[in-house]
Structures are given as structure tokens and as C-alpha cells.
């Protein structure tokens, strides 16, 4: 396999022919993709060189050092983190060729259409229907908690194609064109006053069968591989001490001695310890990943992250007392990105409540750890062998 | 230390029933939610009904002043029900803080004012930051010279709908309480965007506004302490009522929500959390009743029962609102669901009238458990 | 019904004919029983007067004021708290006459034989067998965690009489003579080094059918009423502020300023608040009982009591630091009564661990609260309709 | 602040394998339990094997002194495994405390002594109360005059099996460290009945016992601080090992115990508690590795990583031992089950070398988060 030094050489070679100061941003990114220097662990022809995943930073650092434009990964997190690996694993070559390049360059933003009002933790119970009609599928139903639906060109969609079999077996996975007729996106206002997410309604939306990923009835398996990639992504960041919410309150503590009390000092230090310990756990996970042995600690980090953000923001409102009674702004807005440390303490307090719900509730996560990591038995199931349409709801 | 009566009497249960019925008709969560971003975040018509038909605005006001002559025990039951309804009415400012302060002041202005509050024709509050704990030093943010008040007070509860305010101030003779008509000149009210959408706070700016002194020196200090202690004790019942609502509506929800082919309330993790929450709310109720009984009984120890109730209830109500939200899952995170109203109210009561740590410090001082 | 004043008169009348200074203790107690002044809410003829349960303190106070001997209730807690109400409710008149008087006077101590090594939380799974043989039942098996087995004359025993039906239906309830041949009592040493409890082994023990309580196969129902009485008894004490473990650490805190730190102060106060709040909850329960409306708060009090004792004793060892590393005595002993505040901090720390297991684990208690108080549904059961002998174990 | 290496190297995994295999053969929980009330609570034969065959008594001792020349990273792995086995061997006193102290002292006596410890022919400890935290002021309980040591030190770990002890004392030149042969006259050892049956403590009484000075003034202080910091950091790995054992054996138990016709490990309440415990142990491991790496890397920040690891691990190991007991139910409460050995060890390590609060105070001081 290609080495770090060889990769570095390739980047320099590429840069010698593609001057980032000269070239149009998009053209530069497309060329980088075509040179296999996008995501180096992807196969040749799809933006990569079959290199080790751990070598990606080598490439990114070289491009950054050359002041090259990047693909603005924050604006297309679902595309890069979930859609791309799913398309790579389950898509046809035709689909890979169609979708991967504009996805990586950021020309086409992606969103994910899994959750429904009646199918949250129990994702497999979803009821959005897709009915075959000639070469197309016709989709009706409703999805919820969709980030980026209003900017996305494409969506990962799971829909029920057979209600007569048990719920996990009647699902099929599609790529859905968000500009297709019958797709309606409505902002979903949250308890913070903002609308980060959307509801997406389908009425008679036609999806060509060529946009199906995986076999008919295999939607659950494909969706699981999408979510697996989501979990790998969580907690993998290489963060510094006092990054995130703990840094906000630590700074407040340092700058405002009049707020300090002995009890709050003890609580602050406990939170600091928990935050730093969780950061190291995430760092250990990152090192395991880099060493080619991903551990299951991602779940521990997500659990701790939710608990910490909630505890720290609750602590912050108490520390601030009178200011904790205030809120910065209830106006309904559509934020571009979610930044837990932006805005005021009231926003942080409310927004953090979602951390133990979104991307798998803490309860579901504990089930996953207990069963997949510790090998504990599943509970007796009442919904496994029953046709979806017969389930109580 | 005599044994407090921790139960509810028959009259108290009747009061509860009447108030709850009214709130169910007039103040369901969706109505509260619809109101909270409107131009009229307070439901003054509801307050008028509570004051008029039910006569509960002056629950602890003597009958000769147009009140019901009841005790803190009944006031606490009313607080429970209003907490349960997250009712957007000026109960804390007018019926608790201002009424308690005015009742302790012998002046005829104070008696007139309290009668007006009891009748519901006027609304009052006390000009202290909402976070002021019993046992705090007398505030010095307002000074009075010849009856002219100058200074600024932050986070005054129910300020925007109040007609009159009791202002702690320092004047030529030391601490004093002044009664001030909020329509006077030299008064500036600045509303603050509140975390709690169901109860508002504002900044009171005074620039030579003319008030009448209703208490001075030691007596002013005592009245203010008594007012804060009473409000903290009553607030524990409001918190208990809200915590009970959060528990009840979560139980209701987990019985109707199906996931994995089962009511989510049949999952042991959910059951155990709700069992713990029930135990917490039951315990909160015992402490809140203890505080109410101590406030209603003259001569006994009041500081410890009130501090205990606040130290327990103010964290329990937040836990209840947080569990309510978490166990509602995504739906609880949406604006249209009232979960955030409960959470905002719970959080603001946690900070109001002293945090748990502050009340534990009172226990340490009164209970002989000194700091390191 | 009889009033408090009438009761007081009765006691005075009784005392005028029975001078506690003159009479033999046992004779005095027997006479008190016969006069219906033992447990006044029991029926006439069985030590009571059908009075309100709330009036018992009136009688006890009168006797105490007259310096009359009591029946030493601490030495026969299971007899008074569990056996008596069970016999009253489920026994024949003959059984009531045989057992209740010597039970109340303390002449005959009782113990309870429910738990088994394989049947703890799942009591109904017990496997001690009772086989009918003429007018007798022959019992073989093993019980565990039995207090007072070594001093008891009689035992409440639940045994399996039909392994071929589902577990709740194959049980029968007996009164067992602890002096019968084949009953062997062995001390059970605990993690504290002591043996408060016993194991009881049965080999061919014969119990006459006349000592059966309730119908054959109705043992579960009878046992449930026994346990219900246990739960009513818990938390009903009228205690003073700082009673129990919190008082021990509060005193240490007051007497040893050199141990104090800010963090420990905060923890002490949190524990103090929790202890006092729990005490009030128990007091409220007592008042509800006295007012004739028993509430379910007993379970909350037992849960809190376990958590508190564990937290306080853990706190105490940390507060004492070097002394927390020591233990007073590991010698195997057989204590008469369990006193959580006696002995050293190490003992308290270890003994308190049992509080969340004995008398129903905290986990089972939470199930009970969730289902009986909150009305939440039971989990799917796999053991309800299966013959006991077919169950996995 | 460079990024610590938080993984285990190959050599470390080999070490782990060898130690674990030996302990499985020689030191299963029932053997430890049988020993703990006997006349020989320490397994000195096992220690001899660890020292001799495995050569791990002197893991961090340079090869020229007969050691293995390894770093604190390997020492931490050894601690993990010995913690996992609640092994009754004088590891903490001899291989950590005494060895670390002696290695920092330049005298030939110290070099000789450390070689003897590494070879296992002698056992050592340091005469400080087991609860002494890094950052404590230099102890003054022993004074030295002309090499004669007088004073009393409580809760000295592994004292009853030690042959030599490093004694912090104050002499004519201020703080000093003395090396003392415990068979000298004027030495009195009083064993204490310990909560932790697998590691003993005792009181060291010195009445003019004659020691040799091996460090003085600033150097003595530095050596003692370094020793305490190292021991605290290594203890975090011992705690991680024990916590992992508690988790693993609980998981094993809940898979074999049936109640209500199901493995109790299939109940959600049990599953979630174990999931949380797993997350806690995983996090403990990350902090313990961080501390070990910091100790092994010269020049970096050591105080915060060690304080962090102790602040986290010392409560996590107690939680693990408590959960282990609770989820074993009644059987865990019996003397014959090893649950109490784990609990006693966990609790004593929580108190050892500073409680969590003490370590948080270090973080406050080093991390710029001052008290009120």
C-alpha cells in the first residue's frame, strides 16, 4: 500500500500542476478528486488511492499548507459522513460515478430521510410507503428531524415497500431527488425557538428504480451501514483541553470571581474532570481508529457528551443566577450550523437537551452497548415476527 | 420541634379542586403556549377570575381587608395548582411577595394597597432581583432621599403587569420599604426576554420617583426577610405542583407511545426512571408541606423547613421537567409541545429566591454544620 | 367504634386489677392480651377490640406511663409484623387461637422462610418441595437469608406442592415447627464478618396439614399478603431529625473540624437534606396511615433509605480518611439485632450494601412502584404460562 | 501539551498476558479469600515468582541494577493486572513507592536497596500514611537526630512484610529521607485490622531507630513528591484493572443467573447499568493511560494527568465494586463470595494517595480554576 511519503509526493506533484491561487475553486477540487487525493482510502476512480484511512491527515495537511481551498466539509456533513460510504458500499458503479464526485466537491449537498413521527428509536417501524409503478417508485409519507433538507439536492431515503412482512424485512433504500415534484420541506421549530431541522412531506413523489441502493427489501441492512458510519464519525475529533462547553464556563469562572461559591467550585471541577476524561476517551478512540482497530468507545463518548453538555449548561445557568433567567432571542431562525458554544446560556441549556435524543437516544445507545459490546441478551421481542401492518402503534 | 401536619385538609382539597377546574377550562398548555409570544403574555382575565370568583388573590389577607383569611397552608395549595398549570398570572409577585410584605406593614397605605391586591383591582410586586434568597443582606441598589427613590433593580418578577411595587431602599434612617405607584414619574420599566415564557421579569429604573415609606430600619429588614422566607416556602409548593404535572403527563405519554411494538412505558429503563421520579416528587411534597405548615404555625422553626423544602424541590422540579422532555423524545424538543414551557418555568424557579446551595448554607448555619 | 377516651378508661380499669409491679411479666402480658388491649385493631378474642388502628399509641402510652412491661417487640419483629396479620387473615379460628397469644406475648418467636438461593427477586420460582403424605406434608429443600431462625419456634414457610403448573399456582403456605426433626439451621456469614442471617435446610420434615394456611395452591396469594404487611411496616417509624446514620456523620463533623473540606461540606449538606426530606416523607406516610389512608410512599422511603445509608456510609469513610482504611473486627459473630449506627464506619459501609437487596431489591421496588403506583404495563413475561418444572434456571 | 499515547504497545500486551496467566493459576479469588484470615495474608511465594521468573518486581529499575529497565507505562500495565487479581502482594509499597523513592536517591545504599527490591530478596515501603496525596506538605511526624529516628507513622502500606522502609523525617538540615532496616532496634510495627483484606496497613513506631540518610532538604522533598505522584498515577491503572474485573465478572454472572425465567442480564435496568459502567471503565482506562504516559515521558505536564486519572478512577473503581455487589444480589453479600474483597480493595484505593476532592484541588491550582 502507498506510504505517507509517497502520498506527500503525489500531493506536491499535483500542486505543481494545479496552482490553487490560479485555478477556479471548483475546478481545483474536481481535479483533486480525479487525482485520487480526495478521500485517499476510497478506490481509484472514486476520489481515492486505496490508501490507509489513517493517511488522510497527511494529504489534508499538505493541501492546507499550500493554502488550497477545501471542500467545506461542515456544509455537507451527511453527504461526506453517511451518503458517500453508503453509496460506495451499496451503490452500482453507475451510481458511484454519478454521485460521489459532486458530493465530495460540495456541489451537491445531501440529507438523510430516516426518522418519522412514529418511528424514532424504533426506526424500522417507519411507515413512509414506496409503491412500484413501472420503472418508478411512488412515495407517500412524512419524515422528520431532517437537517439540511432545505439546502440538499439529494436525500438518503428509507421507505416501506412491503407492509405484509415483519418490519425489518419490508424496507427499501433510495436516493431521492429533493427537487422532485411532491417533495415539500417545512422548517421544524425547536424549543430553542430556532429551526435547525425540517419536516419533509412526500405526496406521490416518483423515484426511478435506478436510484434504488441495494435490493428491494434490503433497506434495513443498507440503513444500518449508514448509521454505523455515523457512529464512527462521532467522537473522532482531535480536540484540545477545554474545547467545547466546559471552556465557556471555565472562562466565565476565571473572569467573574463574584460568581464563585464553594459548592459551585466543587461542581465545576467535577465537570472539568468528566469533560477532560471524556476528551481523552475520544482521543483514545481516534488512536485506535488510526491504528486500524476501531473500538466501541464512540458510544461511550456520545453518552458522556450528552450528559456533560446537559450538566454543564445547567450548571452555567445556576452560576449566572440573574442572567440565567434571561434568554437571548426567541425569534424563529434557520441557523446554518449548530454551534453549542455560540449564543447565550439559555440557548445552550435548551439545545443540549437534544443531545440525548438526536442520533440515537441515550437509552437506545445503552441497549446497543449492552448487547453489542457486553454481549448481554436482547429483551423478549414482541415485534420481530409480526407483519408490520399488524403491529400496535 | 413539633411534628408538622403534612397532609391536606378538606378545605385545602376543595380549594385545589376549584382552582384546578378553572385552570383546566381556561389555561390548558396549548393556550399558554399560544399566549407566550403574543402581546399579552400574562392572562390578566384569568387573574381577575381567580381574584374575583375564587377570591384567591387575597387568600392570606384578613377578611376585614377583603381577603379569605387563610394561612400559608392554603396559599401553598394554590401555588401547587398554579405551578401545575404553568399559569401566566402574577401570583408570585402580587399574591405572595407584595401581599406578604404589605401585610406586615402597619401603615394605612399598606392596608389599602393590600386590599386592592386581594380584590384583584391592582397587581403588585416587590423590587428585589428574583434570585434574592432569604437571609441575604438588605439590598442597597435603591436609595431614598426625602421619599424620592433612585436606583436600578434587575429581574423584578411580574413587573410588567404590576401597578404598585414595594421597594427596599436605604434612606436617612437606614433600611426602609417604600410603596411606589408604578405610574409615577421617574419610573422606568424595561422588560427582559425571559427563559421562562410563562412568568416575566423586568428591570426597574427609578430616577427620583416618589414613594411612601411603609417600614423602616429593623422593621424593614424583618419584613423583607419574612417576605423572602414566605415566598421561598410557597415556591416549594409551586415546584411540587409543576413536578407532579411533569410526572403525570410523562406517565400518560409513555402509555400511548408505541415503539418496538410495545408501549414505551413497558420498558424497564423508562419504568425505573419514572419510579425514581415519583419517589422524588413524593419527597418534594413532604418537604413542601413541611414548609407550608411551618409558615402557617407561628413561633416554630421556619428557616430550616423552608430551606429544606427549597433545597430539595428546586432541583427536583428541574429533574422532573428534564425527564419529561427526555422521555417525550423528539416530540418534546418541538416548539409546539409544552415541554419547554415546563422546563423554562422549572429552571427559573430553581434560580428564584436562592439556589439549592444557598438554602443548604442556611441549613448549615441554623443546623450547626459549619463550613471548613 | 370505640373512642380514644373509652380506650384510655379500659386501660386504667385493667391496670386497677393488674398491678404491673406485682404480677409476673408473662402473666401480665397474657392478661393484657385477653383484655383486648394487645393490638386494639384485632378482633375481640384475639387480643383486640376492633378499634381503629390509629388508636394503638393511646393504649401503648397508657401502659408505658404505668411502667408496665411491654412485649419486647424488637425481638419478634417478624412475628408481630408479618406472621400475626397473615394468621389473622388466612388462618382458621383454631390456628388463630393456637398461635396469636404466645406470639404477641413473645413466648414464641417467629421467622419467615421464603427466599432461596435460586429464588430471590423471583420468589415465586422457589423450589423447596412439600409432598402430601397422609395427614402430613413432607418438606425437602433449602431456604436462605432467614433472620431469627436460630431463636424461632415457628416459621412462615412457602413450599412448592405442584411443579407441573405455572410457578405462581403451585405453591402452598405452611406454619413450620422449627424444632421438628429434619430442620437444620446454619449461620450465614456476611461480608461484614457477622452472621445476622441463617440458611435453613429441610430433609424429610413433616408438617401436619392442620398447619397449612390457606388452600393448597394458594401459597402465593398468602405470601403476598405477608409481604404487603412488611411493606406497611417499613418507614412507619416516627423518628427525630438526625436519627440514624446522618446523625453519626453530623456529630463527627461537629466534633472534628480538622476533617472538614469545602467539597465534603457540600456533600454533607446534600446528604442532610436528603435524609431530612426522607424522614418527612416517612412521617407523611405515618400520618396518612393514622388518618386511615395508607399511601404508597413506603416504597419511596425504602428506596431512599437504602441509597442514603450507602451514600452516607461511603461519605463517612472518605471523611475519616486514614480511619476509613481500618475495620473494627472481622470475627464471625451472631448479633442479636441489626443496628446500622453501632460499630465502626467500615461496618456501616459494608452492612448498608445489603439495604438495596434485602426485603426486595431496589430494582424490584422500582418495578412495583412503576406498575402498582404509576400503572405502567408489565414487561413481556416469559414465565407466566409455563409449568415451573419447564422454566430455565 | 503534546498528545499522549493512550494505547497499549505490543510489549505491554505481552507483559499483561504473562502476569494474567500467572495470577489465574496462583491467585484466583477463592485462594485470596482463603488466605485473608490466615496467618499469612500476603502471598510472598507469588511475589517471589513475580520478582524471579517474571522479573516484574523491578520493572522500572535499570538493567544494571537487576531490573527490567521499563517505564511507567509497563508498570501501569502490571498494576492493572495485579488490581484485576486483587493480588495480596507488596506491589504498591515495594515496587512502586520504595522503588521510585530509592531510584531518585543517588546514594550507594539506595542503589543496593533498590537492587534487592528488584530481585525480590527484600521488600520495601515508604513511611507515609497511605492517604497522603501528592502535593501534601512534607511530613513532620518523624524527627531524626544524628541518624536516630523517632516518631510514629500511621497506615503504612505493606509494612508487615517489609524489610526496609524509606522514612521521610525532619533532621538538622530540614526535610530528609532515611533508609531504615526494619529489623533494627527501636522499630515497632503494629498491624491494623484493615478494611481491605488483600493489602495491609500498619503503624510504624520509631524510638531512636538508626537509619541512613539518602536524601536531604529540597532533594528529599522532590523525591517524596515524585514518589507520591508516581504512585498516584500507577494506582489509577490498578483501579482500572479492578474496575474491569468487577465489570467482567458481573457481566458473566448476569448471563448465568435466571430470575423470572430470563437471564437477569436481559433486563433493561441491568443492561443499562452495565452499559454505563462499561462507559465509566473505558473512560477510566483512557485517563489511567494518560497518567502512565505522562509519567513515562520526561518534561511534560505530569500533575494534571495524574490528578485527572485519580479524580476519575478512584470513584469509578468504587462504583464498579458497588455495582458488582448489587447486581450479584444476595450471593454478593455472603462472606464466601469475593465481592467484599473487591469492595474493600476499591474503597481503600479510593482513600489512598488522596481522595478525588484532593486531586480536583490540584487541578484547580494547576488549571487556573481558583476556589471562591
UniProtKB/TrEMBL annotation, chains A, C:
Keywords: FAD, Flavoprotein, Oxidoreductase. Coiled coil: none annotated. Residues 111-203 form the Acyl-CoA oxidase/dehydrogenase middle domain. Residues 217-374 form the Acyl-CoA dehydrogenase/oxidase C-terminal domain. Its cofactor is FAD. Residues 5-107 form the Acyl-CoA dehydrogenase/oxidase N-terminal domain. InterPro entries: Acyl-CoA_Oxase/DH_mid-dom, Acyl-CoA_Oxase/DH_mid-dom_sf, AcylCo_DH-like_C, AcylCo_DH/oxidase_C, AcylCoA_DH/ox_N, AcylCoA_DH/ox_N_sf, AcylCoA_DH/oxidase_NM_dom_sf, Mycobact_Acyl-CoA_DH. GO terms for molecular function: flavin adenine dinucleotide binding; oxidoreductase activity, acting on the CH-CH group of donors. Pfam families: Acyl-CoA_dh_1, Acyl-CoA_dh_M, Acyl-CoA_dh_N. It comes from the Bacteria. Signal peptide: none annotated. Belongs to the acyl-CoA dehydrogenase family. This is Alkylation response protein AidB-like acyl-CoA dehydrogenase.
From TrEMBL, chains B, D:
InterPro entries: Acyl-CoA_Oxase/DH_mid-dom_sf, AcylCo_DH-like_C, AcylCo_DH/oxidase_C, AcylCoA_DH/ox_N, AcylCoA_DH/ox_N_sf, AcylCoA_DH/oxidase_NM_dom_sf. Transmembrane segments: none annotated. Keywords: FAD, Flavoprotein, Oxidoreductase. Residues 223-366 form the Acyl-CoA dehydrogenase/oxidase C-terminal domain. GO terms for molecular function: acyl-CoA dehydrogenase activity; flavin adenine dinucleotide binding. Residues 10-113 form the Acyl-CoA dehydrogenase/oxidase N-terminal domain. Gene3D superfamilies: Acyl-CoA dehydrogenase/oxidase, N-terminal domain (1.10.540.10), Butyryl-CoA Dehydrogenase, subunit A, domain 2 (2.40.110.10), Butyryl-CoA Dehydrogenase, subunit A, domain 3 (1.20.140.10). It comes from the Bacteria. The keyword Flavoprotein applies. Its cofactor is FAD. Belongs to the acyl-CoA dehydrogenase family. This is Alkylation response protein AidB-like acyl-CoA dehydrogenase. It comes from Halopolyspora algeriensis. The lineage of its organism: Bacteria, Bacillati, Actinomycetota, Actinomycetes, Actinomycetes incertae sedis.
